[in-house]
Amino acid sequence: MIWLNSLAFKLPAFVLVTVGASLLLSAYLIDHRLISYHRQTASDLIDESVKRIKDVLWQAETELFDEGQWLLQLESLQATLALVNNFQRAEDYQPFVFNPEKQIAAEQLLNTVQNGTASAIFLFDRNNELISYAQQGAHHFESGFLSYENAQPKLVINSATSDTPSLRYPQDITPWHPKNVVNERYYFVDGTPFLVKSYRNFEGTNAIGTLVLARKLTHEMLHTTLPSNVKAYLYHPKQQAFMAEGEAKPVTQKDASTRWQHDNDGFWRRITVGSTYTDGLTFMLHYPSEHYRVEQQATRQGVLFAVLITALFVLPISFWLVRRFMVAPLNQLMHGVNRISYGDKRPMTDTFPNNELGQLADAVNAMSEQLKRRETRLKRYAHEMERLGYVMTHHFQEPSRRLMLFSQQLQASDTCQHEDRQAADFIHQQSTRLSALVDGARRYLELSRTLPRIEPVNLNKVIDKVLAEPAMHERINRVNANIYVATLPRVQADASHLGTLFTLLVDNALCYRHPERVPFVEIWAAEDTERNRVYIKDNGVGMAPEHHQQAFSLFGRLVTSDHYPGIGLGLSMARQIMRQVDGDITVDASGPAGTVFLLLFSKDTNHESGK
């Protein structure tokens, strides 16, 4: 998946994502703006609808008020009320006395219903008993009055297309009883809304009757006043739903909110005319979605068409431009950089555009030339240092050997005094150490000059060979050391150098063993995705964490006691061997219980080799 991280993939992908995101954002903004436009349109239309509904209701209420005032002033109604209140008794009811007067009153009420001002009118006496009524039925007008027969009330039809009254007494009269409607403005009877006006008729301070006028609020009456794009649903308490033309829309939590609502059906808003808690009339005004779905669909199709046009023309052109002026020069530049990284210091001769990429190519060529000059100087310095090291190791070895021989002759002489013998011992000791240091420097320089032969190496075979050497075998037996070697992986390294490496590490573990413990060395391996990890653990004296790096320094020793021989070169040579194969050695853990060294072997086979 390396190509996913390359600029050759990222740049076209960036163009694709940017253009696609821009188009999607534009489509969203256009669509959102279209919804906002229709929301504003719906708001304006619904505000206009509310105003028209209020105007219609106010006009109907005014007409009812005027008609009620006119009826109350009729002398015939006053006379009928006085007659009924003063003389009517159910047990001795005289039809020929009361019925003609009630009939006249019913006809007057019917005239008002027929002119369309009211849908129903009821006249009650001061005891709230019905006298006369008139109403508009489903197919005809009807009027009548209340009579008595054998002291039992009976509705007498006065004018209708049928001899049977549509009202039943008293259940159909009860909803219009004054005590039920006297304080109502909007009133529902059998699920039908009415605008109600009730008047108490007084003679002085005494009430002599009640006149109830009602105007049926039909959907036709409301919708004829509304804009053509708005529908009104009237709330019916009995059905617990908003109703429109026989269609029931149950109330939901959304409908209970007075805020704007938007769903797939359109825009909704709940409006209450009048008091919300007493005599209010609640509507759900609806601006249907079909009024803007066509425009929205056309807009979305246009945006989709624009996306397709862009995909067919703009994106290929953008890809070609990016590849022509960015990706191709970048590939040339990366090819040159990779060539330089593998040691070819020749400058890049490709033609680059006169922009930042061209400037970068010039800078890379300049750095390549500088690297080439520095490499030449470093090779010259390295050759001189190698020659100097060779001369020092060979020329210093001879004086140190002569000092050792001279000190031995002094030690063997019988004429030496005690002080002279101490001096001779000191000279011999220091000359021996100097010889070891010179020999160690020689071996370190030889190791540095020798290029490793990189090949797959079986670590278990290398360690078995190291442990089988007579000197190592004898030393292990002398200290009764226990060495455990697990199954180890094959690594890319030099077999002879690895033999030296494990000889140094095992020797280090035996040298710095704890005086009160039986020496124990354990070697095992772990593998990750990039490197092979080999651990070497001992139970020796250990080292402090602050000395972990110092332990690998050239001729660096952490102890000065004569009980631990050495010149401080073993771990330095171990690190040199590991770094020659692009590996490393570190102290993974150390303490009073011992030390754990970690060898890191690279899995990359592209090493410099002496083959």
Automatic annotation (TrEMBL):
Catalytic activity of the protein: ATP + protein L-histidine = ADP + protein N-phospho-L-histidine
Gene3D superfamilies, A to Z: 6.10.340.10, Histidine kinase-like ATPase, C-terminal domain (3.30.565.10)
A Pfam family it matches: HATPase_c
InterPro entries: BphY/WalK/GraS-like (IPR050351), HAMP_dom (IPR003660), HATPase_C_sf (IPR036890), HATPase_dom (IPR003594), His_kinase_dom (IPR005467)
Histidine kinase domain span: 391-605
GO biological process: osmosensory signaling via phosphorelay pathway
Keywords: Kinase, Membrane, Phosphoprotein, Transferase, Transmembrane, Transmembrane helix
Domain HAMP intervals: 324-376
Record's protein name: histidine kinase
